[in-house]
Amino acid sequence: MKTIAVAAALLAILASPALADNVVDTLLKQYEKQGATAFNASAAQSMWTRDFVDAKTSEKRRCSSCHTEDLRRPGKQAVTGKVIEPLAPSANPKRLTDPEHIEKWFSRNCKWTLGRECTPQEKGDFLVMIRAK
Ligand code: HEC
Hints:
Blueprint: H1 2-33, H2 41-48, E1 52-53, E2 60-61, H3 64-67, E3 75-76, E4 83-84, H4 99-114, H5 120-131
Antiparallel strand pairs: 1-2, 3-4
Helix pairs in contact: 1-5, 2-5
Heme C binds at residues 61, 63, 65-67, 77-79, 84-85, 87, 95-96, 98, 101-102, 105-106, 109-110, 112-114, 126.
């Protein structure tokens, strides 16, 4: 019984990064079909901390407003104060394993932060950057 539990725990640890890799690779291929080219983690890195001014409230918004500048640390929802688990797969193996969750939150977060959807290129850049953390 104990051996099975240990084996299952080990499998879960081993499987997660591989799953995240598959999920990210599949999304990257989709983005390429939508016109994206060579993905660039450093473009995403500089966008992460860039200020975007909200048209309605004039407040400055950035990805790091909620996720902080260190993706291995927990973040905090800038509006509600709710804790957000770390985005870095190295700190949080559940990250980048569910394509629907990723797309849903790209959509919400890009609209809130940039005032528009992210392009396929930008989403791919973000994924490559986050995956390496
Ligand atoms: C207003 C707060 C807020 C801002 C700003 C924000 N996010 Fe998020 N983000 C969240 C929340 C809340 C979740 C969903 C909860 C969770 O996954 O822990 C999330 C989830 C995500 C996910 C899903 C990760 C996964 O494993 O499925 C990605 C990717 C992401 N955010 C990227 C971004 C990017 C890129 C930006 C900047 C364009 C950004 N976020 C700005 C709050 C924010």
